[in-house]
Amino acid sequence: MEKKRIQILDTTLRDGEQVPGCKLNTKEKVRIAKKLDSLGVDVIEAGFPTSSPGDYKSVQEICKSISHTTVICALSRAVEKDIEVAGSALKYAKRPRIHTGIGTSNCHIRYKFNSTPEKIIERAIYAVKYAKRFVEDVEFYAEDAGRTENEFLAKVCENVIKNGATVINIPDTTGYCLPEEYGNKIRFLKENVKGIHKIILSTHCHNDLGLATANSLSGIMSGAEQVECTMNGIGERAGNTSLEEIVMIIKQNSHLNLFTNINTKLISSTSTLVSECTGMKVQANKAIVGINAFSHSSGIHQDGVIKKRETYESINPEDVGIDQSSIILTARSGRAALAYRYNKLGYLLNKHSLDLVYSIFLKYADEKKEISDMELKIILKKANLNNNKNKVLHINTNNSSIRINVV
Ligand code: KIV
Ligand code: ZN
After folding, report:
1. Cβ(204) to ligand 1 under 6 A?
2. Quick one: which of 79, 219, 370, 379 has the most CB atoms within 10 Å?
3. CA of 87 to the centre of ligand 1 (A)
4. pTM
């Protein structure tokens, strides 16, 4: 069976940047956009040009600096002025896309717009038609689709397709849906909307209940062709679907028969760049890109990983651009990890030496969170191993054939 390609729309520079305190300037935005381009995303949502002159300029500069097949997308509300500004900011893009839309849930229709379902459909149609004056590629978002009744959502979708929408985004704006519910919504649209097979159906899930990635996965397994996501999962409130998670889920699970164009070896460096530019630290236990994602500190796990990496890792760190897993020395570590780390420093300990060093190590480790290489050398000195029984061997690891010298 032929594999289906899932397109990746990265919205780090738009939904991601909406996080309080993570404002990016034009230079930083261009730098991140170039990195996302090398990473292989299909669409870069570059910003919301009408929101500020700075964002307009950033979108414009990104369009100038991304020269090939990547689509550059700009957000707008279903408002003429927004759409005009988005169209103008995208002037230099090789492949421009306007992303326009309106809230479709009862809550948004009633409280945000003080409107009616019929008027919302009229505004949706008008926005798409108006955006078509500026670009061919128009994505429509049905904001709060997660809480929109499926029949009404289908009606909205059918109308915007008839009027030229090329992509339809189904945002779970408030992170409300359960995976099954979101998947059923996508399937319902696939089965009930006339013309749906002519367009790309997109997921856009927020993480308020920690379900953004699960919901996106459910969406693509139910037929969606595009996932909207951000690097490190940054975004409004609890964030968006994280790019690294959805991409690696697809890569690790070949039975899904899906693939993306992402060069996964650039995931770690892209994550670091986004974190540095936005000032948003990645939590240590974050899947794929957290500092602990490939670190092992308990004795049982360390012993397993040293014998065979796969015992406690289902992802190869090299696949995401990390050289190797880390063996962290703590009071929970065992002899195997200690010997391994001494080995890395060039020391080979015999059994007697290791026992002696280990007892000193535990005293140190009980006082500290983590034992460094420097401290390992101090421990070795303290152990005073230079007698015949307790030998420490110094090995030269500079070349592949290891030379062993008695110290
Ligand atoms: O979450 C959302 O509904 C959005 C739309 C503006 C696309 O970000
Ligand atoms: Zn969003």
Report:
1. yes
2. 219
3. 19
4. 0.94
